[in-house]
Each structure stands twice: as structure tokens, then as C-alpha cells.
Amino acid sequence: MPTLTLNTYIEDFTNLFFPKLCLACNKSPVVRDEITCVRCQYELAVQENYKDKENDMMQAFWGRVPLEMITSMYTFVEKGRVRNLVHQLKYRNQKNIGIALGKTFGKKLAKVSDFESVDVIVPVPLHPRKERKRGYNQSEAFGQGLAESMQKSHLAKGLKRVIHKTSLTRKSRDVRFESIKDAYEVREKKKLAGKHILLVDDVLTTGATIEACARKLLQLPGVKLSIAVIAQGEL
């Protein structure tokens, strides 16, 4: 049973008058240390494609890059609760969302044989200019939470984005990939060679960003690669 500190009592007293609201629905209050309300926790059930070696995400990458496994915590739906969480994580200075989601998902992945052999977790990087503006990398926060609950090494700066591009959100996968295929470099080659790497990101839509990072990592000798993301868009 956790020990209640003076700060905890103060926080609980403050929440009586200024309750923290759920970061998914922004309506209902949350209990201590949670980011979502009970209703959203129920409706945001983690999907179980991490148990399926031939899930739809794996099929989408067949013939593109060789993967050990790929999984997503949620399905991304416009105007849904998952979108709200991701928006808060990326644009509302809520780094804690990424860490909390990583901890939750990591507990599930740690029990699956395909992820037991992971040696190191590497996040998709932001360009330094963009990370300075935002103050943190949301994918790194997710990776931090995963590493903690999976008890794996977290190489936060294993990859570096060296080319800064404007948004490619409305472009096709092929156009996006051609634009960013050389945008990433491996920084920690000696630490990553021969390892089973878990590459992590926030949202996977066309898969172009993940593919660009994956191809760079797979150039290292003896590397095996798996992928985990917070949310999966339409592939």
C-alpha cells in the first residue's frame, strides 16, 4: 500500500475544489496519478494486435522492411478520445501522457514472447529545431514509459533527424517516404549493432517515417527490429 505524504494530502485537498480533468474527454475528474477518467479507461481498451504475428500492421509492411513484430496501443480515430490524448501529448505540453501510456502498454508487451527478446528501445526523433520549440520529443516520452515497465534499455538519442521538413500530413506514402528517406541517421551504431531494437513512435499513418528510420537501423549488422506506436491510423 503506497505511503501518503504531505504533498499527497495537499494535492487531494486541492482536487476537491479544482479537480484534474480527464485528458481524453476533458470532462470527468480523475483520481490521483491517472490521466484518464474511469469511463475513458473502459472505452480506451488497449487493442491486442501485439498477440498476432500476422496482424494488419505486419501485413502492411510485408515487402517493405523485415520486422520481427509491430503493434499499436490504440486505433486512431478523428475526433475521438485517442486523438485528444495524442493532441494533448504533442501540443499541450503533456509529456506525462506519453510516459503513462508507455508504462501501461509496456506491462502488456513484457508478457509476450515476441517482445521479451527486445534489447533496447529507440524513439523516432524530432528535428532538433522542432524539439527545442516543443520542449521534448513525445515519442521519447512513450519510449521512456515502455522501457521502465518492460525493464529494457532506452537509447533516447539512438537516431537523429538531420533534415527538417514541413508537414507532409496530406501527402501519399510514396511522396512522404521519398521526402524523408534520408532524413535520419543512426548515432549510436556500436550500441545498436547486433541488438533487437524496439522502434517507437506516437502515431503511424502511412508508415513512411517508421520505414525511413527502420531502413537506417537495419543497415547495422545483426539488427532485428520491432515497432510499437501509441496509435495506428488507416494504413
The number of distinct β-strands equals 7
Net shape: globular
The proportion of residues forming helix, as a percent range, comes to 40-55%
Q: Please state the average pLDDT score.
A: 90
Across the major sheet, the strand order is 1-7-6-2-3
Radius of gyration, CA atoms, in whole angstroms: 18 Å
Strand content: 15-25%
Task: Give the SSE string.
Answer: HHHEHHHEHHEEHEHEHE
Your description of this structure?
By secondary structure, the chain is α/β, with parallel strands linked by helices. Helix content is 41%, strand content 16%. The chain has eleven helices and seven strands. The chain has helices at 6-17, 38-43, 56-61, 81-91, 95-109, 113-116, 128-134, 138-150, 173-180, 189-192, 208-217; strands spanning 69-75, 120-123, 153-154, 159-161, 184-186, 196-204, 224-232. The chain has a five-stranded parallel β-sheet with strand order 1-7-6-2-3, with helices on both faces. Strands 4-5 form a two-stranded antiparallel sheet. Helix 4 packs across helix 5. It is globular. It starts with 5 loop residues before the first helix and ends with a strand. The model is unreliable at 8-18 (pLDDT under 50).
What's the quick description here?
The protein is of the alpha/beta class. The chain has 11 helices and 7 strands.
